[in-house]
Amino acid sequence: MSQYEHLCMIRGDGGHTLRQILEQICNKWTLLVVATLDQQTLRFTDLHQRVPGISQRMLTLTLRNLERDGLVAREVHAEVPPRVEYTLTPTGRSLLGPALALAGWAMEHVPHIEESRAAYERRRA
Predict the structure, then answer these.
(1) Cα–Cα distance between 43 and 121 in angstroms, integer?
(2) How far is CA 43 from CA 64, 78, 100, in A?
(3) Who's near 48: CB < 8 A, 6+ residues apart?
(4) Whether the bond into 81 is cis, omega within 30 of 0
(5) Cβ-count burial of 52 within 10 angstroms (0-12 exposed, 13-18 middle, 19+ buried)?
(6) Coil, strand or helix: which one is 46?
(7) pLDDT at 91
């Protein structure tokens, strides 16, 4: 068994569940929201202001998916107006290490990737 074979193990559903989970956690908005919630609990408006470029609709959808998957906890306070806060769960917090490692890899390889993209475009022109 190769050292990476465990990454490709297919469960009884033909890998469907694994693909869904990876699709969700590898989403750029998911990673930005998780990274933003790393240090603190935030209200929706504060979170929206701190995640550059995200629309309110996309933030709502992202938070719903993260809550559904158990990565984010949503707490509604009975106040007028209602106050809703979001925080990472222990499972959500466990995503930070792999997410930061992936971001670090991307930052390290930006020059090579940009060079490769430019070369590709020159060949296609």
Answers:
(1) 43
(2) 14, 14, 23
(3) 54, 56, 59
(4) yes
(5) exposed
(6) helix
(7) 95
Q: What's the CA gap between 23 and 38, in Å, rounded?
A: 21
E strand map for the chain: 42-43, 72-77, 83-88
Here the tokens at position 101 are: 């490692």
What is residue 16's predicted lDDT score, i.e. its pLDDT? 75
Residues of the chain falling short of pLDDT 70: 1-14
Burial 98-116 (b: 16+ CB within 10 A, else e): ebeeeeeeeeeeeeeeeee
Residue type, 108: E
